[in-house]
Amino acid sequence: MVEIYLSQEKSDWVKNIIEKIKKNTYLYPETFIYEGEIYSLRGEKELALKAYERALELNPIYKGIREYINYLRSENIKIPDISEYLNKPIPQEFLDFPAIILLDQKERIVYKDGSSTVVYHKLIKINKKEEKDKYGEIIIDYDSSFERVRIIRARTIKSDGKEIEATSIQDFSIASDYPLYTDQRQIVISMPSVEKDAILECYYMIDEYSRGILGKNFQDIFFFQNEIPTLLRRFGVWNRGIMPHSAPEIFKAKYGDCKDKAILLITMLKEAGIDAYYTLVSTRHSLPLKKNIPGFQFDHAIVAVPYKNSYIFLDGTAEDVPLGELPIMDQGADAMIIKDGKPLFVKIPLSQSENNERKFISKISIRRDKFIGETQIILTGYFATYYRWLLKSATTLQKEDFLTRLLNNRIPSSRLLKWDIQNISNLEDFLIIKLVYENNYLNNINAFLFSGIKSAEEITKEIRKYPIEYYLPYKEIEELTLTFEESLLVEILVEEKLKDNP
Questions:
Q1: How far apart are CA 130 and CA 111, in angstroms?
Q2: Strand pairing of 357-366 and 475-484?
Q3: How many Å apart are CA 406 and CA 411, to the nearest integer?
Q4: More confident residue, 122 or 34
Q5: Residue 375 half-sphere exposure, CB side, CA atoms within 13 Å?
Q6: Which residue from 43, 146, 208, 410 has the fewest beta carbons nearer than 10 Å?
Q7: What is the pLDDT of residues 281-299, one digit of tens each?
Q8: How far apart are CA 296 and CA 280, in angstroms?
Q9: What is the CA radius of gyration of the chain?
Q10: pLDDT grade, residue 216 (50/70/90)?
Q11: Is 344 within 8 Å of 316 (Cβ atoms)?
């Protein structure tokens, strides 16, 4: 109805409708957009600006409104007079410099809706013609997701007073191969007639629509109920680092960060008829979640799938983690599942020690002059994930170098003879590393062991007041089989030592 009346220029009728709406609620940005249109039709520019700014305070996503506000504001732009700089004599000590900066001014104008405009004014005098390459182009960096550049003036004033406007202005993407992941761009202004005694002038503005990660007010992102922060349907549409992309964009681009992969995974699961929910995580790399403190405290996004009165968590960025497992940074972390527009705070469970197992099966053949060893390392859970990540993209030489260092870290002075890695891409099976090696120096049986005490903290106290807190529960098993030449004399084979719960 409002649009019909506006098309018929019945502004008084529209104004009456708007006033009735405002009596009921002030929370609809569209109300103030229509009010701004009425004032624009009447030629009341200041009131129109005020109404549009109010609309943007309620919802900052209206790019067209922002551009129209910039247009209304631009009518008041007065380009400063630079005659005082042109006529001002240059001190003698600066005459030998290749170029002189006559003016380098920056001014920020902050508006009521929290957005701002940064005004730049530059004047450069060329003293030597060889400086053309250095000052012949003026480069402006900006982010197109929340910034807009307005070039008001770009010109060269020659020594005879002739003014030549810059006509070659190009806008480039910084990372053209990754347009989905960054909106960083660069405007290059090629200044004309850059010669000795010429003065280059560039006067431009950058409109910044961003109001910071939390916006102008906390309620831009959060509202509070019983002192619990609840995420709205957007994280911050003005910030590329927070707002995820749509599933079609991600699928087409074939890349994305944790937010993007979570969105794509949820979309694919729902297509398969499986419920899935966007989940924000404060990983173990971050600080513990403080629910009573307003602010965005999450640094990761994953997916929660309902299963048997609980949830299975899926991390779309964990390429080396099998289904049902999570990377170590997610385990034990605070998380917020967004279900039906409401938050559900949970603690992601830690895996058990039997899920993170490192097993060494060694057969050592001891001869008079050396020993030959064969060790099979079987890895699951965290250990398998870590070694897969480390080795999957390594070259053959890099893998051999790593395994040589691993072997000598456990059994010094050993020479790696053969090696093999199995199931590096098969996440459904154990990761197995096989080593064959020899050593001419060791005669102590304890030196053949791959496992052992990792820290003095584990054995220094007979009675412990507080338990040792391991970063992740794990289990180590070592099986060692020794064979000897018949002519060898063995004094002590194994001294039995057992210690439970150190």
A1: 43
A2: parallel
A3: 9
A4: 122
A5: 29
A6: 43
A7: 998 877 778 877 766 788 8
A8: 10
A9: 34
A10: very low
A11: no
Q: Which two tokens stand for residue 115?
A: 């957005």
3-state secondary structure string, 239-298? CCCCCCCCHHHHHHHCCCCHHHHHHHHHHHHHHCCCCCEEEEEECCCCCCCCCCCCCCCC
pLDDT score of 178: 62
Question: What's the token pair of residue 389?
Answer: 């990540």
Evaluate if residue 84 carries a pLDDT over 90. Answer: no
Predicted confidence (pLDDT) per residue in 323-337, tens digit: 889 998 999 999 999
Instruction: Give the Cα separation of 318 and 389 in Å (integer).
Output: 10
What is the rounded distance in angstroms from the CA atom of residue 121 to the CA atom of residue 140? 12
Q: Which two tokens stand for residue 248?
A: 């079609």
Q: How much is the mean pLDDT over the chain?
A: 79
Q: Tens digits of per-residue pLDDT, 398-451? A: 999 999 999 998 888 899 999 999 999 899 899 999 999 998 876 565 666 777
Q: Which domains does the chain have, with CATH numbers?
A: 2-74 (1.25.40.10), 83-208 (2.60.40.3140), 236-347 (no CATH), 353-484 (no CATH)
Neighbour count for residue 361 (Cβ, 10 Å): 17
DSSP element (H, E) containing 53 = helix 45-58
H or E segment to which residue 489 belongs? none
The DSSP call for residue 465 is S
**Which run of H or of E encompasses 500?**
none
Give the burial string for 75-95 (b: 16+ CB within 10 Å, else e).
eeeeeeebeeeeeeeeeeeee
Q: What burial class does residue 194 get, using C-beta atoms within 10 Å of its C-beta: 0-12 exposed, 13-18 middle, 19+ buried?
A: buried
| Distance (Å, whole) CA 152 – CA 70 | 13
pTM: 0.53
Angle between helices 29-42 and 11-24 (to 10 degrees): 150
Residue 291 neighbours by CB distance under 10 Å: 13
Please check whether residue 154 is in contact with residue 191, taking contact to mean a CB–CB distance below 8 angstroms.
yes
Of the candidates 320, 426, 429, 414, the one whose C-alpha atom is nearest the C-alpha of residue 375 is 414
Q: What is the DSSP pairing of strand 137-143 with strand 184-190?
A: antiparallel
Q: Is 395 a residue whose pLDDT tops 80?
A: yes
- What is the spatial distance between Cα 214 and Cα 211, in angstroms, rounded to a whole number? 7
- Summarised one tens digit per residue, pLDDT across range 431-444 is 999 999 998 876 56
CA angle 317, 321, 323 (to 5 degrees): 100
**Dist. CA 306–CA 312, nearest whole Å:** 6
